[in-house]
Amino acid sequence: MKNIVNFFKIAEKLECEYRITRMSDDAQQSVASHSWNMAMMAIAMESYFVRKYDMSKVLKLCVLHDLPEAIAHDIPLHQQNDACRMEKSMQEACAINKIIDMLKNPYVADCFNEYEKRVSPESKLVKALDRLDTTVQHLCAKDLSYVGEYNKNFYWKLFFSEDFAKGFDFEPVLRKVFDEIKSRVSERLKNELNIDSNSFVGVENENS
To answer: Are 132 and 174 in contact (CB under 8 A)?
Structure first.
């Protein structure tokens, strides 16, 4: 029982680990909130998916995919390079091993590894939901001006790139939802910041 309670204490840290994305109240989004949003999106769109998914697994992957960050912490995408990603992978593997030793439940590691390999339909869907939640925050954030502060509009160049959009094409509902979000975000940029979103289209992202 001590190890289970210790795990609860580790998992709680996801509520204290913050991403750079901001919420509608202008607070930073926690990793736990991000995971919860993904689960909500999976439930909301389930009846629209053209493929059959093990939804129990999808929800578990949503909850567990960032669990190592309770120990290894989150690293914003604009700060990552090849060396950083390798170090991050090693730290997350060590974190998962620590959690497995604590829970005596290899299923947690199996879920995380499945998500990382992105071979199963469920893991591919969850990765798409991971990306989609970031776009939702662009729609919901109280003030969008912070997004352009990182590496000369790194996140806007990513958001408006065709490669990013193609990541949703395997499920038509994902692409339709993303396109709707992108349209609304474009309107926000124009109305609130007087920025034409077309200025980001086709611009190479130095960190991509």
So the answer is: yes
Give pLDDT, residue 99.
86
Say if pTM beats, i.e. exceeds, 0.85: yes
In order of 136, 144, 159, the CA distances from 201 in angstroms are 19, 18, 9
Q: What SS3 class is residue 150? A: coil
Residue 136, CA atoms < 13 Å, CB-side half-sphere? 18
Spatial separation of the C-alpha atoms in residues 48 and 120, rounded to whole Å: 19
CATH code, domain carrying 154: 1.10.3210.10
Q: In which band, very low, low, confident or very high, does the pLDDT at 98 lie, cut at 50, 70 and 90?
A: confident
Compute the CA torsion angle 181, 152, 81, 76 (nearest 10 deg).
-50
Confidence of residue 12 (pLDDT cuts 50, 70, 90): very high
Structural domain boundaries enclosing 34: 2-200
**Domain total in the chain:** 1
> With 90 as the cut, is the pLDDT of residue 124 above it?
yes
Please check whether residue 143 lies inside any domain of the structure: yes
Backbone angles phi, psi at 30, to 5 degrees: -85, 160
Helices H / strands E in the chain, number of each: 10, 2
125-141 tens-digit pLDDT:
999 999 999 999 999 99
Q: 181 in a domain, yes or no? A: yes
